[in-house]
Amino acid sequence: MSVNWDWVGKEFNVKVLFSVAGVASQILIQSRKEESFLLVDAGDGIVRDLLELPGRIFEKINTIAITHGHFDHVGGIFSLLSIFRLVNRSETLTIISPPDNSNLKNMINVFTEYNTAHQTFDINYVETTDKSFKFKPFTITSFLVQHRSSLSPPGKKMSAVGYKISKKDETILYTGDTGYFDQLKILVKGVDLALIEATFIEKKEDYHLTLFEAKKLSELAKDYILVHVPTHIHFQNLKKGKD
C-alpha cells in the first residue's frame, strides 16, 4: 500500500495530513529519492494521522519545522515525542521553531524531564526568524510572517514564521498562519507548490488571509493547496491543484 499524496513533484511528495483553523495543522513532506521525511507543524491528532499512513513513516521523520506556538500547530508534540520513545528511536530529532515559542518549549521540557531515565534520542532545538538551514536532503528557509494571538493586545504580533523547503530546482512554500503583506507576493512567485492559509471567507482581521487573498497569491505559484481552512467548510472541498 502506498501513500495517497496530495502533490507529487520531481523531488518532493506532499501530504496535508490535516489542516483546519483552530483545530490542527500538520503537513508531511517527503524527499522522494532518499525517503527522508519532514513534518511541518504538529497539531492535535498528529500521531493518529501518521499511524494511518502505511510503512511506519513516522519513524523516518528527522526534522520538524514549527511555524508558531498556537495549540493547533504544536498541540501534538508531546504525544509525537512519546511515540518516538516508545519505538526506541535512536536518531537525533531536529525541531525548528521561531523564538519565544513557550508552548512548544514547555511540552519538550515536560517530555524530557518525564523521560530522563528512559530517553532514547536527542533533540536538536533550533530557533529561527529569517535563516536558511541545510538538514539533508532539505534546505529549509524561514521568513517572518504577520500573525498574533487572539489573547494579545491589539496590534501586538507574535513570533511566527513561514517556510520554504527546497531541493535542487524544486521549492515548496508554506505560509504558516499570516495576514497579507506585500512580500508574500515575492515569496510565493514561481514556487512549485504553495501551501497557503485561507482562514476567512470575509476579512475579519489583519493576521489571517481570506479565501480571496489566498486565491490571488495562488496565481503566482505553479501549483497550490489551500490549508488552515475554516472549520465550517469541509477540508476536501478547498484542497485543489492547478491543471
Can you put this structure into words, describing what you see?
With 243 residues, the chain is an alpha/beta fold. 21% of the residues lie in helices and 29% in strands. It is built from seven helices and 13 strands. The chain has a seven-stranded mixed beta sheet. Helix 5 links the parallel strand 11 (170-174) and strand 12. It is globular, with a radius of gyration of 17 Å. The relative contact order is 0.15.
List the helices and strands and how they pair.
Layout lengths: L6 E2 L3 E9 L3 E8 L4 E5 L5 H6 L9 E5 L5 H4 L2 H10 L6 E5 L4 H13 L8 E5 L4 E4 L2 E7 L16 E7 L2 E5 L8 H6 L4 E5 L13 H8 L5 E4 L7 H4 L5
Parallel strand pairs: 4-5, 5-6, 6-7, 11-12, 12-13
Antiparallel strand pairs: 1-2, 2-3, 3-4, 8-9, 9-10, 10-11
Helix pairs in contact: 3-4
Beta-strand content estimate: 25-35%
Topology, number of strands:
13
Uncertain segments are 238-243
Number of helices: 7
H and E order:
EEEEHEHHEHEEEEEHEHEH
The pLDDT mean sits at 91
- Indicate the radius of gyration in whole angstroms: 17 Å
Q: The biggest beta sheet, please?
A: 7 strands, mixed
Within the largest sheet, what's the order of strands?
1-2-3-4-5-6-7
Helix content: 10-25%
Q: What oligomerization state is this entry in?
A: single chain
Structural class: alpha/beta
**What is the approximate shape?**
globular
User: How far apart lie the N and C ends?
Assistant: 26 Å
